[in-house]
Design goal:
It contains three helices and four strands; from the N terminus they run H-H-H-E-E-E-E. With about 140 residues, it is α+β, with helices and mostly antiparallel strands. It has a single domain, classed as Nuclear Transport Factor 2, Chain: A, CATH 3.10.450.50. The protein has a four-stranded antiparallel β-sheet, with helices on one face. The protein starts with about 25 loop residues before the first helix and ends in an 11-residue tail after the last strand.
Amino acid sequence: MAAPQRQQISACACGSALSFADCCGRYLAGAAAPTAEALMRSRYTAFTRQDEAYLLATWHPDTRPAQLDLHLHPVPKWLGLKVIAHQLQSDTHATVEFVARSKIAGRAQRLHEISRFERVEGRWFYLNAAMPDQGSEKPDD
């Protein structure tokens, strides 16, 4: 008798080693991310899925663009996310430094960013970002 086949559980795109359902899937479905890092990871996952609605919904109203038009640009193939640092400045403000790797039209891309987040009425929102000095990134593991 053949062994029963196990259902393939896909890992979350954010690199957490959890399944999508146990990680970013719940936030993309509407649950509030408990930390700025969780929100940032879920936003990365939303980029991999071209989920413009989620990206706009989690963008702070003071800095949110009217639209993103993700489908109008060459679609990146997202290769991975590395969180470098998550710092809580206060109960309502945090930063997350990360590197996201992708390929666009066959060319490797690397986005190294320090994103700022604000918590409003219990929900974290992406505010804006800065590019860190090139020498500030820790070497890859």
